[in-house]
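Researcher: We plan to redesign the surface later, but first we want a full-length starting point. Tokens attached.
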């Protein structure tokens, strides 16, 4: 127990953290170029925020949340996603009085009590974007194009964009009646969950993963064919905007997303590669959410991308992630005087931003050279009394085998100039 991490959690080990840092740095670059600012939100919130903001009828709220009473008797929940917390922050900090739209992104851990499998964990990481205050489709296009550019920058190919519209409360009310009429004669054949959904949120029947339910619903009326004029116009605007940027998409009538607060645009980026968990990213418009959470009515749109699934996708596409962690120079030493000199030299190099190592284990020269080799350093110098007295040493390039007789004082400059 003590030496095993809880089920569904994973350490990101030093040997793989470079992959995360690389992706996070590309995310930061892309978001900066789009004018999205980072926000950092708490790991836990009041449970009620998720009940309202994610929605009582969702799997997340019904089955997956880590909820507990804190010492003050308050019900607290570990964030199962980021949108609700960001919305709470938007309201709490009066962001509606700032120039709109407010464009935010986050990199967070999220917590869901799930059946653990490949690409599905209990603690996982999401990169997400939320944009508040703009109601037209051009911001939907902008938000989707962030992902398009991110995938391009990461070298990911073949991830498909599926879009749909789930309308607004006006068209959904009418549609729900039609859908219920369709479902009524077959309701006893559907799963227990769908029977509850039928009463509480019929649209979510279309989101059921059970094959039997799927087969009964394959000819069900689609919301996209029953949109009101405003929602139709919005969806046409979205498609035209994507066409304008050359972003390919497919209209997928069955995407409804698991969350209650979505309106109009919904989308997913799906891959064939990540086993059964093919959805890398899901998002959509949530014009009702801010009001639901206690703010003034404000339109919003966002997405959340699963970082673990993104990494799995990159691995399955064989995309090499650059690892710049190699140590630049190892200063090997013989004797105490050289050791003291080396301490000063590596400190100097480090303060100039050059990564440098020296012996910390009392190793022999031979063992130091072996260790330097294992570290994969680019350069090695050897220092003993003679080298210090003569101010000269040999700088060895470990990649090319080339050796150069250099003065000790010149090492910093040479490494800076990458000679
Ligand atoms: P799924 O249908 O796979 O359960 P979801 O609809 O619950 O996904 P969202 O709430 O939309 O997922 O979360 C956005 C993204 O976060 C998903 O597309 C996925 O990449 C990732 N994600 C969701 N749950 C997990 C999890 N348990 N482990 C790892 N990644 C996850
Ligand atoms: Mg889920």
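Model: Full-length starting sequence:
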């Amino acid at each position: 127990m003590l030496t095993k991490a809880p089920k569904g959690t994973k350490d990101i080990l030093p040997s793989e953290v470079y992959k995360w840092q690389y992706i996070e740095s590309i995310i930061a670059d892309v978001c900066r170029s789009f004018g999205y600012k980072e926000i950092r939100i708490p790991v836990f919130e009041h449970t009620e925020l998720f009940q309202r903001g994610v929605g009582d009828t969702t799997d997340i709220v019904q089955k997956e949340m880590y909820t507990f009473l804190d010492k003050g008797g308050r019900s607290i929940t570990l964030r199962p996603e980021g949108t609700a917390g960001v919305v709470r922050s938007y309201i709490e900090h009066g962001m509606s009085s700032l120039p709109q739209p407010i464009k935010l992104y986050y990199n967070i851990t999220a917590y869901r009590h799930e059946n653990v499998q490949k690409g599905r964990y209990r603690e996982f990481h999401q990169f997400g974007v939320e944009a508040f205050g703009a109601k037209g489709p051009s911001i939907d296009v902008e938000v989707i194009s962030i992902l398009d550019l991110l995938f391009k920058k990461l070298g990911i190919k073949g991830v498909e964009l599926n879009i749909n519209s789930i309308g607004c409360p006006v068209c959904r009310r009418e549609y729900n009646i039609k859908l219920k009429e369709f479902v009524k004669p077959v309701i006893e054949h559907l799963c227990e969950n769908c029977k509850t959904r039928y009463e509480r949120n019929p649209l979510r029947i279309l989101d059921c993963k059970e094959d039997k339910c799927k087969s009964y619903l394959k000819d069900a009326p689609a919301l996209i064919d029953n949109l009101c004029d405003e929602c139709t116009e919005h969806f046409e605007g979205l498609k035209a905007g994507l066409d304008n940027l050359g972003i390919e998409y497919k209209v997928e009538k069955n995407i409804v997303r698991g969350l209650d607060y979505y309106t109009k645009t919904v989308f997913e980026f799906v891959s064939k590669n990540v086993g059964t968990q093919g959805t890398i990213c899901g998002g959509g418009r949530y014009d009702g959410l801010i009001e639901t959470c206690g703010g003034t009515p404000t339109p919003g749109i966002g997405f959340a991308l699963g970082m673990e699934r993104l990494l799995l996708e990159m691995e399955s596409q064989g995309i090499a992630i650059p690892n710049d962690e190699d140590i630049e120079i190892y200063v090997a030493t013989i004797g105490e005087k050289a050791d003291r000199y080396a301490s000063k030299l590596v400190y100097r190099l480090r303060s100039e931003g050059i990564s440098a190592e020296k012996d910390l284990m009392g190793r022999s020269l031979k063992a130091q050279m072996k260790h330097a080799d294992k570290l994969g350093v680019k350069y090695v110098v050897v220092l003993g009394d003679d080298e210090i007295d003569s101010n000269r040493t040999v700088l060895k390039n470990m990649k090319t085998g080339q050796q150069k007789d250099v003065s000790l004082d010149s090492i910093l400059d040479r490494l800076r100039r990458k000679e």
